[in-house]
Write a structure and sequence with these properties.
There is one protein chain. The chain is an alpha+beta fold. The chain folds into three domains: about 1-105, no CATH class; about 125-375, no CATH class; about 380-415, no CATH class. The protein has helices at about 1-15, 15-20, 25-30, 30-40, 50-65, 70-80, 90-95, 100-105, 380-400, 400-415; strands at about 125-130, 130-140, 140-150, 155-160, 165-175, 180-185, 190-195, 200-205, 210, 210-215, 220-230, 230-240, 245-250, 255-265, 265-275, 275-285, 290-295, 300-310, 315-320, 325-330, 335-340, 345, 350-360, 365-370, 375. It has a 25-stranded antiparallel β-sheet that branches. Helix 4 packs antiparallel against helix 5 and helix 9 (about 380-400) runs antiparallel to helix 10 (about 400-415). The protein starts with a helix and ends with a helix. The relative contact order is 0.04.
C-alpha cells in the first residue's frame, strides 16, 4: 500500500517540470519541504535513480550552504533529468501539502542506517524585539512559510514569509487603516489596497503606495493608469460614474498634458494642466458643432474658430471665458459673410455692428445685429451720397440730357450699398 502511495507521489513530482521553471518564487517558499520530499522519493529503487540521487546530493550541498538561487537551479536540473511529461504546478503543490507523507521516516537506499527526516524542521515561535512582535514559523533564525508581525507603528502583516521579509500571499494593515491584500515581495507587492476613506487600489505597490499600472476606485470615479510611490505619473484614464471620462497625460491633480476628455455631449482634445484646460484644443459636440483654438477651464478663451452646424456657419473671432467678444468674421455655407463686433446677450442672442455681405446680390450693407436679427443701416454716408447722385441724375433727365442722366444713375446705383 505504501509503495503505491509513493508511486503516486513520484508520478506527481515528475509532472511538475515546466511550471517549476516558471514559478521560482513559489518554489523558494517551500524549499525546506522540497528537500524533505526528494529524500523520501529518491530513497527507493526507481529508473534513473543514480542520476537523480546525484542531483539530490548536489541539492543538499546547496541547501547546507544556504544559496537559494542555486537551490532552484539544482531542483530544475533534477526534474529535467526525468524527461517525463510536464503538466502543471498543482501536482507539486499537492505533494508539498501531504503532511502525513512527510511525517513518515524514509530509508535512503545505500545508507548504512535509515535516515529519518524530522517533521519539525520548521518550528512555531513568538519573538518580541524593539517594538516588533512576530508569531509564526522559523527555520533556524529565519522567518519562513507563514507568520504574523506587528510593527512599532501599529501596522500588522499576516501572511507568507521568505528571507525574513513578507513574501507571497498576505495582508498588511497599516495604523491609519490602509489595508494591503495580495502578493508581497518584501514591501513591494501586487494586489488590493483599501484606504480608510473607503477608496481602494488594485495593482502593484511598494511601501509608499501604488507603484506601477493599476486601478484606483473612488466613490464617484475610477482611475486606471500609471502610478509611482502613490502618485499618478505618465498617462491614464479617469472614468466618472456619470459617464464622463478623460484619457491622456495626468498627475496627482488630474489631467496633465495632452489628452481627451468627454463631458456630457462634448469631446475635448488638447492641453491640460492639473485638471484644467490650458493653451489650445478642440471641442466637438455630438450635434456636429466644433471649436478649435485657445481655451481655458471655462471653455473657449482667446482666438479661435467654431462651426455651428444648425446654421452651417463658421465663426472666426475672439472669446472671453466662453463668451463672444471683440471682433469676428462669420461665414455661411451660401457665401454670406459678416465682419464686425459680436457679443451675446443673456438670452443667447447675437449683438454687434459691422458689414453684411449677401452673396446672391453681391451687395455689402452696413448695419447691426440686434437680439439675433440683422438690421440694415440705411443712413450711411455711402447711401446718402448715392441718393444725392440719383437726384442729380434725375435733374439731368428732366433737363433733357439723357446721356449724363444715364451715366449718373449707374454711378448712383453702384454707390448706394453697391458692390
Amino acid at each position: 500500500m505504501e509503495d503505491r502511495i509513493l508511486e503516486t507521489h513520484v508520478i506527481k513530482w515528475m509532472k511538475s517540470v515546466e511550471v517549476i521553471d516558471a514559478s521560482k518564487d513559489r518554489f523558494e517558499q517551500a524549499e525546506w519541504q522540497a528537500y524533505t520530499t526528494i529524500r523520501n522519493i529518491f530513497g527507493k529503487n526507481r529508473p534513473n535513480m543514480e542520476l537523480l540521487a546525484n542531483s539530490c546530493n548536489t541539492l543538499k550541498e546547496y541547501l547546507d550552504a544556504g544559496v537559494k538561487d542555486k537551490v532552484f537551479t539544482a531542483v530544475r536540473d533534477l526534474l529535467k533529468t526525468t524527461e517525463i511529461a510536464r503538466e502543471n504546478f498543482q501536482a507539486f503543490k499537492e505533494l508539498l501539502e501531504d503532511r502525513d507523507f512527510f511525517a513518515r521516516p524514509a530509508a535512503i537506499e545505500g545508507a548504512s542506517t535509515p535516515v529519518v527526516v524530522p517533521s519539525d524542521t520548521a518550528v512555531y515561535r513568538r519573538v518580541e524585539s524593539n517594538g516588533y512582535v512576530y508569531e509564526g514559523m522559523f527555520l533556524g533564525d529565519e522567518r519562513v512559510w507563514k507568520g504574523k508581525i506587528t510593527y512599532p507603528d501599529g501596522s500588522l502583516y499576516d501572511g507568507e514569509w521568505d528571507n525574513n521579509g513578507p513574501h507571497g500571499e498576505g495582508v498588511l494593515t497599516q495604523s491609519d487603516g490602509t489595508h494591503f491584500a495580495g502578493r508581497f515581495d518584501g514591501l513591494s507587492g501586487n494586489g488590493r489596497i483599501d484606504y480608510s476613506d473607503h477608496t481602494w487600489f488594485e495593482g502593484p505597490w511598494n511601501e509608499n503606495g501604488p507603484n506601477g499600472y493599476g486601478t484606483w476606485h473612488y466613490d464617484d470615479r475610477t482611475d486606471i493608469g500609471e502610478y509611482r510611490d502613490g502618485c499618478r505619473v505618465g498617462s491614464g484614464r479617469l472614468v466618472w460614474n456619470d459617464g464622463n471620462w478623460y484619457e491622456g497625460g495626468w498627475n496627482d491633480n488630474g489631467a496633465n498634458g495632452q489628452g481627451t476628455m468627454r463631458v456630457g455631449t462634448r469631446t475635448d482634445r488638447g492641453e491640460y494642466r492639473d485638471g484644467c484646460r490650458v493653451g489650445s484644443g478642440r471641442m466637438e459636440w455630438d450635434n456636429g458643432d466644433w471649436y478649435e483654438g485657445e481655451w481655458n477651464d471655462n471653455g473657449r478663451h482667446g482666438q479661435g474658430t467654431q462651426y455651428v452646424a444648425a446654421h452651417q456657419r463658421t465663426d472666426t473671432g475672439q472669446w472671453d471665458n466662453d463668451h463672444e467678444t471683440g471682433h469676428a468674421t462669420m461665414k455661411w455655407s451660401n457665401g454670406n459673410t459678416y465682419r464686425g463686433t459680436w457679443s451675446r446677450d443673456s438670452r443667447g442672442n447675437l449683438n454687434g455692428e459691422g458689414e453684411y455681405y449677401t452673396a446672391s446680390t453681391g451687395k455689402t450693407r452696413s448695419g447691426k445685429w440686434v437680439d439675433g436679427s440683422w438690421k440694415t443701416n440705411w443712413a450711411t454716408p455711402r447711401n446718402i451720397f448715392g441718393v444725392a447722385l440719383g437726384v442729380v441724375a434725375l435733374a439731368f433727365l428732366l433737363g433733357g440730357n439723357w446721356l449724363v442722366a444715364i451715366v449718373l444713375a449707374i454711378v448712383a446705383y453702384n454707390v448706394y450699398e453697391g458692390k
